[in-house]
Structures are given as C-alpha cells and as structure tokens.
TrEMBL record:
UniProt superkingdom: Eukaryota
Coiled coil: none
Protein name: Acyltransferase 3 domain-containing protein
Membrane-spanning parts: 39-56, 76-98, 119-141, 179-198, 219-241, 256-272, 284-302, 314-333, 354-375, 390-410
Keywords from the named record: Membrane, Transmembrane, Transmembrane helix
Entries under PANTHER family matching the protein: BLR4337 PROTEIN, GLUCANS BIOSYNTHESIS PROTEIN C
Endpoints of the signal sequence: none
Length: 446
C-alpha cells in the first residue's frame, strides 16, 4: 500500500473512532436524561404515599386526621421516608442537575423567568386555595391543634379569619405558620435556591469539567463516602440551633442548609461527569449499606430515641439518609433507562406531570380520607389500617391525575400547577457564554 492510501486509511480510522466516541457519549447522555426523568415518578409516588401514611399517625404534627391507634409499621414508614429526609435530597439534587443543563442553553433572564413562572404561581395557588381547603378539612375532622385555638362555622368564615391572622398569631403551642405553608415549603425553597444560586452557577459553568484519573476517582469515592454524612450532620446541627430565628420558624421542619447544599451537589454532578460515573460505579455499596442500616434506624424510632434530639441520633439519621439517597440515585441510573415499554410509558407519563401532582395531591388525599371516613364510619379508625391506607393511596393517585387532566391540562390553568413554561409563551434567547455555545446540552425538565 502506498503512503497516500495508508494516510487515508489512518484518517478514516481516526474519524470512525472519534465519531463512535461522540455517539457513545450522546447515548450515555440520553440514558442519564431518561433516568433523571423517570426517577421523578418514583419520588413523587413515595411523597404521596408518605403523606397518605402520615394521616394515620398520632404523632404526626401536621398531617394526622383520624387514626386512634399507632401501628409499628407506620413508625417504619416515618423513619425511612420522613425523619431521614432522603427523598428531599433527591428532589433538590435533581433540581441542581437540571439547573446546570438549563443555564447552558438559556440566558439568565430566561432561566429566572422560567423558574418563576413554574414555581411562584403554584406557591400562591397552593397556599391560598388548596392548602386553605385542606386545613378546613382538618378542622372539620376535629384536628386537636386547630380546634383548640379556632372556632369557625363555614369555610368562608374560616378562610377570612384564618388568613387575616396568619402573620399576627405566632403561638409556640400552635403550628399556625406550618399549617399556612403546608407542603408548599418545597416550592418556596426551590425558587429561593434557584435565585440565590444563579451567580455561583454562572461562575461555575465557565470552568471546564475536570478529567479524573482512576486513582483520583478512587480517592474521591472514599472521601465522599466518609465525609458526606458528617457534612450533612453538621448542617443538621446548625439548623437545630438556628431554625427559631426570624422567618426560618415558618419552616421549622425543613432544613434550609441541607437542601441548599444538595442543589449545588446536583450542579456538581452535572458539571463533573467523571464524579457522576464514580458515584454510579459504587451503586451496590450504597444499596447494601443503606439496607443494613434500616433495622437500626427503625429500632431507634421504636425506642423513642428520635424525641430526645440527641446529636448521635441525628448522626444516625443523616448517615442513613445520605447513603439511601446515593443508593436510590445510582440504582435509578442502572435500571430506569432499561424499563420495558409497558412500564416506561406510565413512568414517563407521571414524570412529565410530577410538579402538578405535587401541587394537587395533598388536598385530593384529604378529600379521599374524609370520604372513606364517612363511608366506613368508626371502623375506619381502628381496624385494618394497611388496607385503608392502600385504598386511600390508590384513590388519591388516580383522582389527582384525573383532576389535572380535566381541569389543569389547559394552557391557562397549567400556570397554577407549574406546567406552563416560558417557551410556551415566547421564544427563548440564546446564552452568550462561550461554554454554552460549544455543544449545548438539552435542558432537563425542572
């Protein structure tokens, strides 16, 4: 073969190799995008289940409505899903991951407009319309805290008096501010974090993603495995001593520092793909460690240790929460992109409506609970809690989706549940940063 032909063969081989690498990278991005989208289905389903289950617990400060008996398995649900808080770690990490890719293809103005359009209207609609009806149902069902402090005759009487006093009545015995905000603290935090994080996001994305050697990857794995739980524990202690200050009292059960950290953790995983790969490679370590800790955590709850607020118990909760979060995150990337079609279709359907389900589900599950109570009467209080809970959960899920598809699927009602995007109203402008111009990634759903 002459030198010219040999040179041509080498060039073709290099071109093929580079194109195959690019194709592999694109395929990997598609799989990641699919996993991150479908993990929303799992998380929103768990949140709905937790809120339904919390309605049957005597010690639930916000959600309890009717149940007179305390079941051990409900304590396990509260320990694994509630007090540990790892589902919210997943939600905020998803938000940070999405923010990175969104800022690569959008200007800052479009990013602010989109997040504000998707979060601010649902906050006001949720607090002043949906939450108002939920609180009235609690009062109507004889919720002790509300009945002790308030007397109302009709829903209109309740609405006018309750919300006219929402910032003047701050009684330590009454969870008044917590009731006013309800489940919509998550949307408030998310909007605040996105706005506060923009300067750092803009600065951070200008730096190229580092390439990690095998040795550095192993070092990062060990360091993260050992230090991340203690870092989150430190945030928990800081929150414990500062949560009674100023406006933070409104969010007394929601750790501002932890969640602010995890939105940047998601941004970091999107920025440094090698670190993300390392995390996924450790999937089964995280799964084994979190499963191994579940009996210890449940034993601590059954022993009443969570009420002491001792810092060692807080450490136990945080270690479990971090490893459970990492296990779910990694396991989702290993399994969810490869679902069969009969599972992939409903997963994608629910994932696309996750924020709407979050906004609507609580008032729906309250209505279902009242309906079941009136159908079953006193037997609903003390017998067969598991069957009632499963029926309550399934009906709430179905009716939430039905409410969205019949009332909030239209263009001008979607804004109330966070489903209307800026791109549905006007064309988006392109970002000016040089990093964003080079091979922009597709923005993930918020």
């Amino acid at each position: 073969v002459d030198s010219g032909a040999l040179t041509e063969i080498v060039k073709n081989a290099k071109g093929t190799d580079e194109s195959s690498k690019a194709s592999l990278a694109q395929d990997k991005k598609k799989l990641y995008r699919m996993a991150l989208n479908r993990i929303r289905t799992i998380m929103i389903s768990l949140v709905l289940f937790f809120h339904c289950a919390a309605s049957y617990q005597q010690d639930s400060a916000v959600f309890f409505l009717v149940q007179n008996l305390m079941r051990d398995w409900l304590v396990y649900v509260n320990a694994i899903l509630g007090d540990s808080g790892w589902p919210m770690f997943v939600f905020y990490t998803l938000a940070g991951y999405a923010a990175y890719h969104s800022l690569r293809v959008r200007s800052v103005k479009d990013f602010v407009d989109d997040r504000s359009l998707r979060l601010v209207p649902p906050i006001f609609f949720g607090i002043f319309v949906l939450e108002a009806f939920s609180i009235y149902l609690m009062y109507y069902m004889g919720r002790e805290y509300l009945y002790r402090f308030f007397r109302y005759e009709s829903f209109l009487d309740f609405y006018l008096k309750f919300y006219s006093n929402c910032f003047s009545l701050m009684i330590s015995e009454c969870p008044y501010p917590r009731y006013v905000i309800g489940i919509y603290w998550y949307l408030i935090y998310l909007w605040v974090f996105c706005m506060l994080g923009i300067p750092l996001f803009q600065l951070w994305k200008k730096y190229p993603s580092p390439r990690l050697t095998t040795q550095k990857a192993k070092l990062l794995t060990v360091a993260g495995f050992l230090t991340l739980p203690f870092l989150v524990w430190g945030f928990d202690i800081a929150w414990y001593f500062s949560k009674d200050f100023s406006f933070l009292r409104l969010f007394s059960e929601s750790n501002f520092y932890e969640y602010f950290f995890f939105i940047f953790f998601g941004f970091f995983l999107a920025w440094c793909q090698d670190a993300h790969e390392v995390l996924l490679d450790c999937c089964w370590y995280f799964v084994g460690f979190s499963i191994g800790m579940m009996p210890l955590l449940c034993h601590a709850h059954l022993s009443g240790l969570k009420y002491t607020r001792q810092f060692d118990i807080m450490l136990l909760l945080n270690v479990f929460a971090v490893y459970m979060f990492l296990a779910v995150w990694a396991l989702a990337h290993k399994t969810l992109p490869y679902l069969p079609p009969y599972l992939a279709v409903p997963f994608d359907y629910i994932a696309d409506r996750a924020i709407a389900i979050y906004v609507l589900h609580y008032v729906v599950q309250c209505c279902v609970l009242v309906l079941l109570y009136y159908i079953r009467g006193d037997s609903f209080l003390n017998h067969n809690t598991l069957c009632h809970l499963l029926l309550h959960y399934i009906l709430s899920y179905i009716l939430t989706l039905a409410l969205y598809e019949t009332v909030f699927c239209w263009r001008y009602t979607q804004v109330f549940v966070g489903m209307l995007r800026v791109s549905d109203i006007r064309p988006l402008s392109t970002p000016t940063s040089s990093v964003a111009k080079s091979k922009p990634a597709r923005a993930l759903p918020a």
